[in-house]
Amino acid sequence: MGPSSCLLLILIPLLQLINPGSTQCSLDSIMDKKIKDVLNSLEYSPSPISKKLSCASVKSQGRLSSCPAGMAVTGCACGYGCGSWDVQLEPTCHCQCSVVDWTTARCCHLT
């Protein structure tokens, strides 16, 4: 067996090791291309009706302040530094401190 035969016997297994890797890479690249094609074919079309958030503050004397019909409470503030409040029956801010001179409800709706 000559040196060229030995070289071929060594190169053939090496070429077989390289080939599956290149096949996998080409499969990966094909899948990447397919995924990109599908994603590019999807069209984002925002809703023709654009909504805007509209908010207002409603201040009342005492421990309760209610939002107008159609608006939702998004936050409350209470007088005398009271930081304890909750929302009652959806449109009403309720300050929980015993002494409160005013309550403000932050009311919002989509227009």
Automatic annotation (TrEMBL):
Keywords in alphabetical order: Disulfide bond, Hormone, Secreted, Signal
Domain of life: Eukaryota
Pfam families to which the protein is assigned, alphabetical: Resistin (PF06954)
A Gene Ontology molecular function term of the record: hormone activity
Listed GO biological process terms: epithelial cell proliferation
Keyword Disulfide bond in record: yes
Signal peptide: 1-23
Assigned GO CC terms: extracellular space
Location of this chain's protein in the cell: Secreted
SUPFAM superfamilies: Resistin
Family assignment from sequence similarity: Belongs to the resistin/FIZZ family.
Name of the protein: RETNLB isoform 1
Species annotation: Pongo abelii
Designated gene of the protein: RETNLB
